[in-house]
């Protein structure tokens, strides 16, 4: 395999590097899925219901970064879910792990090179909307790219038009048809009482927000806050993918400064664990409906 050329002028991985990584991963399987799912914190359990799974650990892929966060196991899983070939990414990369933004979303470019057309994003997020409850599922209808607004957009740097155009619209990123199919599935399964639709805001992390920060995020119009997803959806959009996103509300954010509840990563993992079975059921049916 050719050496990975970490050329910073093109955001680390050249177009050729990305093709090389894709070929390297595809050597492990004859499957050619068009749907990929990125598993959020503690949500990798969806992989347990993948039929005939083929697991490709990140360490076995020369030049691929490792995932360092608990609840992100660090492998790709190919197989069938809901009757469709799928690719699961168990273990996303986060900015707060020290990866530059372009590296955080690099796997999405590799997915595109592997033939992925539809990108499903999941995450655990803190609830900012006072009507939400811990354990709710929030379909992402829009996002606020807080790092992007302050100069850390994932697409900053030299643009290679083989990946996508220099300038892209990011309104209407989250596909309407996929959103209504997901809604349909959740309602059919009888989970309508925990279903929300709202705006996700990305912060850099790893600090959870202070109460004053949380009030600002809410004033911006966000319903849930987390430390991921936006770079992946922007790069997916840039490469012409269809995007869907859902947040599991892992905890309700303290907005008042007086709370005794200090959120921990363990709280986030606990909620994800409690919703593992429900997420499996929902995604099997949802993926079945995707064209
Ligand atoms: O967004 P995902 O990967 O689900 O993870 C969320 O959970 C972690 C905090 O517990 C943060 O990484 C936050 O972004
Ligand atoms: N409060 C809070 N909870 C989360 N769960 C996942 N991400 C977050 C976050 O950024 N804030």
Automatic annotation (TrEMBL):
Limits of the Nucleoside phosphorylase domain: 34-287
Highest rank taxon of the organism: Eukaryota
CDD domains: PNP-EcPNPII_like
Reactions it catalyzes: guanosine + phosphate = alpha-D-ribose 1-phosphate + guanine; inosine + phosphate = alpha-D-ribose 1-phosphate + hypoxanthine; 2'-deoxyguanosine + phosphate = 2-deoxy-alpha-D-ribose 1-phosphate + guanine; 2'-deoxyinosine + phosphate = 2-deoxy-alpha-D-ribose 1-phosphate + hypoxanthine
GO molecular function annotations of the record: purine-nucleoside phosphorylase activity
Record InterPro entries: Nucleoside_phosphorylase_d, Nucleoside_phosphorylase_sf, Pur_Nuc_Pase_Ino/Guo-sp, Purine_phosphorylase, Purine_phosphorylase-2_CS
Pfam families linked to this entry: PNP_UDP_1 (PF01048)
Record's GO cellular component terms: cytoplasm
Transmembrane segments: none
EC number(s) per entry: 2.4.2.1
Keyword flag Glycosyltransferase: yes
Cited PROSITE patterns: PNP_MTAP_2
GO BP term, pick one: purine ribonucleoside salvage
Known pathway: Purine metabolism; purine nucleoside salvage
Keywords: Glycosyltransferase, Purine salvage, Transferase
Subunit organization: Homotrimer.
Family classification: Belongs to the PNP/MTAP phosphorylase family.
Role played: The purine nucleoside phosphorylases catalyze the phosphorolytic breakdown of the N-glycosidic bond in the beta-(deoxy)ribonucleoside molecules, with the formation of the corresponding free purine bases and pentose-1-phosphate.
Protein name as it appears in the record: Purine nucleoside phosphorylase
